[in-house]
């Protein structure tokens, strides 16, 4: 992490620098006591975090903040304001102009590190997302180049199948993220109104105290009944009791929504980490199943009842992304099967368990089943029972090859026509 500390008082610069030197934070620190030099320093260095004093001669910290935030390339820099000010207007101006946080002066070690570590975490996440985006762009370019150079028709159709699946997944994930974001926005709007009323009430409290100009002895002897009645009436008009009762629930709902978005993004990251890498590592199959269900949840909940039975299982050595793709492919097949018969009582059961020293996963649905004369062909490349042009017939072929060939596992299917279909795949346990 590259950190720039700006303060016209050299003592503050020394204190902040000393704290960083004795910490275990891996960072490169630049000190500056002239606010007019900040713009040049930022243009010449790739700073991750800036600690910026508000009150400085020549140019205030807020003026410097405005200059930095006016340039799009600096948007992801975390900016923390140093301040000994306590008025709300100063804080409001800082945040309105793009400050991410603040550190009180005189600098206290505990607060300094707490706020700095939060900024480092936020900046690290931003860098990770940027790298992930660049990697996906690079991977996409590589795939485009590969499609241009390879003439094999079969490979091109498999790529088309994958791209179609990614498109459907992206639409479902976008919907799942939009739902919690919707009520997060609504909750924040409500909280904004609540805060405004609470601020009004606080101003009334302060106005009474200031108007009477009472010291401690006066307060003991002063009859506050008139003011108390006024305050109670004001609280009733502003519905302060209602607001105080509702705020906790609104904040909890908002946190739940944020956590849900975080889980969806985390699931996408887990699949993206090894999506194009030949990486076999220790994984929990239950977690991979949960992530696949989360990513497909929008389609699943609209078609069928989902029952997950997570057994107590040992870990397996596998490529997380590939196994996730297999599970999503099988779940998609179950969804399409249930849709095909317009079954309003559709049900999908996903079960993990251990059997004969092997870690297993079964996915069953109560769709139309598979006829016996078709069952032996379902893993053949390009075989499909769907209408021509609606499916490439390679999904189960890829799933079978991933499980059996790449992971040395077993893949089995059983079906009772007009009743159910069960796909089961098994891996060797690492024990």
Automatic annotation (TrEMBL):
SMART domains: HATPase_c, REC. It comes from the Bacteria. Residues 129-156 form a coiled coil. Keywords: ATP-binding, Coiled coil, Kinase, Nucleotide-binding, Phosphoprotein, Transferase, Two-component regulatory system. SUPFAM superfamilies: ATPase domain of HSP90 chaperone/DNA topoisomerase II/histidine kinase, CheY-like, Homodimeric domain of signal transducing histidine kinase. It is an enzyme of class 2 (transferase). One of its GO terms (molecular function) is phosphorelay sensor kinase activity. It catalyses: ATP + protein L-histidine = ADP + protein N-phospho-L-histidine. This is Stage 0 sporulation protein A homolog. Residues 172-431 form the Histidine kinase domain. The modification 4-aspartylphosphate is found at residue 53. May play the central regulatory role in sporulation. It may be an element of the effector pathway responsible for the activation of sporulation genes in response to nutritional stress. Spo0A may act in concert with spo0H (a sigma factor) to control the expression of some genes that are critical to the sporulation process. Its EC number is 2.7.13.3. Residues 2-120 form the Response regulatory domain. It comes from Clostridium saccharoperbutylacetonicum N1-4(HMT). InterPro entries: CheY-like_superfamily (IPR011006), HATPase_C_sf (IPR036890), HATPase_dom (IPR003594), His_kinase_dom (IPR005467), HisK_dim/P_dom (IPR003661), HisK_dim/P_sf (IPR036097), Sig_transdc_His_kin-like_C (IPR004358), Sig_transdc_resp-reg_receiver (IPR001789).
